[in-house]
Amino acid sequence: MKGKHIINRRKFLSGLGLGLVASINPIKKPGEAKNADFVELLSPEGEVVSVNKSLLKEVPKYLPHKAINGDLRKGIKGRKFVMVIDLSKCKRERKCQSACNKMHNLTDSKNWVKVYKMQNNDRSAPYWQPTICMHCDEPPCVKVCPVDATFKRQDGIVHIDNNRCIGCRFCMAACPYSTRVFNWNEELISNEKPHSDNFHYVGAHSQLGTVEKCDFCPQMAADGKLPLCVTSCPNGVFYYGDENEDAVTNGDETVQLSQLLKDKGGYRLLEDLGTKPRVYYLPPVNRLFPFEAGLEENISSDEE
Amino acid sequence: MKQVWKKIFHQMKNRLPRDISNVVKDLEPRKFGKVGLIWTIGLAIVFIAGAISYTVQIREGLGITAMRDYASWGIYISNFVFFVAISLVGSLISAILYLSGAKWGAVLNRIAEIIAVSSIFFAAVIVIVDTGRPDRLWHLIVYGRLQSPIIWDVVVVATYMVLSILLLFFPLIEDMHLINKYSVTNNKWLKKVYNFLSFHWVDSPQQKEIIRKSIRILAITIIPVAFAIHTVTSWLFATTYRPGWDSTNFGAYFVSGAFLAGAACVVIAMYVYRRAYHLQNYITKVHFDRMGKLTVLLALLYLYFNVNEYLIPGFKMKSGESGHLTELLTGEYSILFWSVIILGMIVPIVVMISKKGRKPLPMLIVAILIVVGAWFKRFLIVTPTLLNPFLPIQDVPDSYHHYFPTVLESLITLGSLAGVLLVMTGFTRLFPIIPIAEPIDYEERLNVKGKKSLVSKTVIATLFVLSLTLPSKAVDKSTAQMRLDYNKIDSSSYVTLQVRTRDGRKYLPAEGVIVNLFLNEESKQGMMGNVITNEEGKGIYILPGKFYNAYDTLTEWNFIARILGDSNLEDQRKYLKVKKAELQMDLIQEDSLHQVLVSLYEHTNGHLIPVPEIQIKIFVRRMFGLLPIDNGYAFTDDQGQVVVNYPNNIPADTSGNVSIVAKVIDHDDFGNITIEQNMKWGDAVNVEDILSKRTLWSTRSKAPFWLIVAANSVILGIWGVIIYLVYQLVRVNRIGKRQINIH
After folding, report:
1. Which candidate from B237, B394, B529 shows the least CB-CB separation from A45?
2. How far apart are CA A71 and CA A198, in angstroms?
3. pLDDT for B596-653, tens place per residue?
4. How far away is chain B from the Cα of A47, in angstroms, using its nearest Cα?
5. How far apart, in whole angstroms, are the C-alpha atoms of residue B210 and residue B438?
6. Contact A178/B70, CB-based, under 8 Å?
7. Do A48 and B544 touch (CB under 8 A)?
8. Cβ-nearest to B140 among A35, A147, A180
C-alpha cells in the first residue's frame, strides 16, 4: 500500500469492520459531504471496495489527558445544542430516566432525569413534566463555581469536570431547577466508567464527593447520535438538535425549531430568573394521554 | 468599682514597681486548677471525638451526614456562618469601641480578639469539613475563579484571620515585657516565649509611638474587613435565587446579627473569666452594665433587620416565598423560629433594658440565650430554604425530604465548637487574658422505582429455579425476523440487515448473528460475504467494486440473505429483488428563487427511462436528522421529475453550505435510493464565540475587568497595610535592640 493509504489507516481499519459488523451510520455533518467523497478500502474478503465517506464510522481516538480536558471544556465547535420537551405527549413511562440511568451508571436516588407531577393552580389540570439540566446560557451554577469545575462550553453545554470539583455544593444551592446531584456515598458508584474511551466523557464519571448532572450527552452528539432520553422515549416527547441549524429531532421526525416553538407556544422554566435555559417546553395541550395514565398504579398494571 | 480602677491607674501611672508587680501577679497566666483541668480534658475529649468522626467521614464520604441533594448544606454550613459571626466581635470591641473613645472596652480587648481568632480559624476548619473533596483544596489556589463568592470568602477570611492575629499580638508586646520583668513563674520555656514576643521592648517613647500608631491603623483597617467577611458570607446565600436567600437585606442582616452574637459571647467569656480567675477588680460590674447597653442596642438593631427580612416577603407572599415562610412562621420550623426570635432577641432586650438586668448573672443567662439562639438562627437561615426549592421535591428517596443531623455529623460540629473553646483556654493558660499595659498607657483606647409485586417476584424466582433444573437441550431455537434492504447513496450501494426475535409483544435485537449474503444464486459463485449483526441486531454490507462490472450487465439484482446453523436461531432465508434505478438532482437558482429538481430513472437495457408517479422525499440535512422540505406531495411526473421550492429560512453551516438530500424510500422495486448534494444556499451561520466573552459565568481567565480591578485593588490595599504593620514590628524590635546594646 502507498503512503496515502497509510494515513487512512484508522479509517481503513474501521472500514474493514464495516464489511463485517459496523452499525448503520449514514449521518453526515453538513458541509462535510461532497458528491464524490470516496475512499478505497480493503474488504474482509481481500477486495478493494470504493465507499462513500459518509458510511465510515470514526474510531474514537484516545487522546492524552491534557488534550482531553481541553476538548471537554471547549465543546463541539459550531454547535449550540438545544432541547424541546413536548408535555402534551408525556405519559410518565420514565423510559428516559431508566435509559439515562443505565447508560450513566446511576442509581435511582441520583436521577439526572426527573419526571415531576406539576399543577399550576388548583383549577388547572395536572401534567407530567420531565426535567433535565437546562444548560442555561446565563448559568447560575457556573457563576458560583470557585474552581471552574463546572463550565459553559461553546456548544451551549454546561459540563462538569469531576476531576476538578471540590464538592462545595454551591452550584447545587445556586441551581433553581434542582438538577444537580451529589455523590454522597461511595457504594453508589459503579467501577465501570462508561464510554471511558470517548474524550467527551473523560473526567465526567461519578466520583465520591463531587457533583454531577445531566450533560446533554456530548459524547453521543460527537458521534452524531441523539441522547438516550430522546431515543428511548416511546412517545417522542424529547426533541434534540442544534440551534444553529434551527432544527430538532425526536428520533422519528425532524422539525424546524423556530416553527415548532412558534406553532406550539414554547416556553422555558422559571423564565423570570433570567437564566436563559437551553431547554424549551411545549405546553400540555391536546394531550396524547390522560394524566391518570401516568399514575403509579396505572403504569404498573400496564406492564403486567 | 471605679475607685479600684482609679487606684490602679494611679499606681501604674506613677510606675511604682511594687504596684505593677501586684497587677502582674493578678493578671499573669496561671496553672489550671481542678475545675480548669476537668474543663480542659472535657473539651479535649469532645474535640477528639469530633476529629475521629471526621476520619470516618473522610473514609466514607459525606453520606454519613443527613445532608442529601435537597438539604445539601446542613449544620456544618450553619456552624460556619455562626463562627464567622462571632468572630466579628473582635473588630467591635477593639476597633469600633477603641476608635469611638470608649475606654472601658480596653479591658475586654483580648477576650474579644481571642474569640475572633479562634472562631475564624474554626470557621475555616468546618467549611473544609463540609467539602466533599478536602484532598483538592489546593484547587482553590491553583484554579481559583475570581467570579465565585467562595473565592471572595476565602480571601476575606484569610485576610481577617491575619488582621485579627495582629490585633491580638500588637497590644501583647508590652504585656510580655511586663510579665517577663515582674513575673514570679520559673517556667523557663514560657519565659523564652514571653521574651521573644516582647520584641526587645524597652519602653522607649519611640516604640510606644510605633505601637500606638500601628494599633490605630489596624483598628481602622479591620472594620471594613470585618464587615466584608460577614457580608460576603451572606452573599454565599444571597447570590442564589432561592426564596429566603434572595434578599438585598442580607448583608446588613448578617452583620448586625453577627455583632449581637459576638457581644453575647464576650459577655459569657467575661463572666467565666471573672469567676475563674477572680478578676472582679478588673472586669467590673460597670463593664457588664456597659456591655449590656451595647448588647441591647445590637439586639434592637438585629430585630429591626429581622422584621424587614420576614414581614416584607410575608406581606406579599409571592408563590415562591410562601412555602418557605409558612414553614418558618407556622409550620415545621415555627417552634424553633419563634423561640429564636423571642428568647434570642426579645427576652434579652426586655431583661437588659433595665439596670437590674445588666448585672453579671442575668447578663450571663441572657447572653447564653442569645448565643444558642444565634446558632439555631443560622440553621434556620441555611436549611429550610434548601428544602423549599422552586420545583417540587419528587422522584427522590424519602430521606431527601427532611434534614435532621446524624450523630457523627453532630459530633464533628460539637468538636469544632469545643475546638474554639480549647484554643481560648490554651491561650489563657499562656497569655494574660486581660491586657496589663493597655488600659494605662493607651488611655484613648480601646455560615424509585415501583416495586414488583411479591407474586411476580415469586413467579420470576420460580421460573429462574426451574430454568436451572431444565437440561440445556431444552433451549429452543427461536424464529428470527429478518429485514433486508437495498440502499444506494449517490453511487455507492449497500445492503442493510436487521435480525430480531419476538418476545411476547416486544422485538429483541439478535446480536452476533452471522448472515450470509448472495447475489442471484445461493452458490459459491454468488457469495458476496458475511455480515455479523451488532448489538442493535443490525448489519451493513457494502457492495465491493469487483461486482460493479457484473451489475452493469444486469437490470435487476436478486439478493439472498441466509441464516444457517445458528445456535439460537432457526435457519432462514430472505430474498430481495431490486430494479436498478438512479436519482439525479439539479439545484436551480433564479434570482432569489431556489429550486430543487429531482429526476428518477430506471436502467432498462442500457438505457435510462424516466419513472413517473413515484414519491420522492426531499430534505435538508441537519445534525441529527433530515428536515423535510417537500410538504409530502412530491410525486414524479411523466418526465420522472419533481420540482420543490427551497425555503429561504433554513440556516446554512458556517461556510454557507446546506446539504440537500433526495430519497426514494422503501420502494418495492427500487429499495432505497438517496442522492445528496451541497449548495451555497442560505446565510452562513454566525457562531457566537461565547468562550471569549468576559462574564460572571466565564472561566477564570475571562473574569470581567471591573471585577479584576475592584478585587485586586482591595486585596492589594489591605495586604499593603498588613505588610506595613509587620514592618512596624521589625522597627520596634530594632529600636529595642539598639537601646539594649547602648546600655
Report:
1. B529
2. 11
3. 999 999 888 778 889 989 999 999 998 888 999 988 888 999 899 999 999 888 888 8
4. 7
5. 14
6. yes
7. yes
8. A147
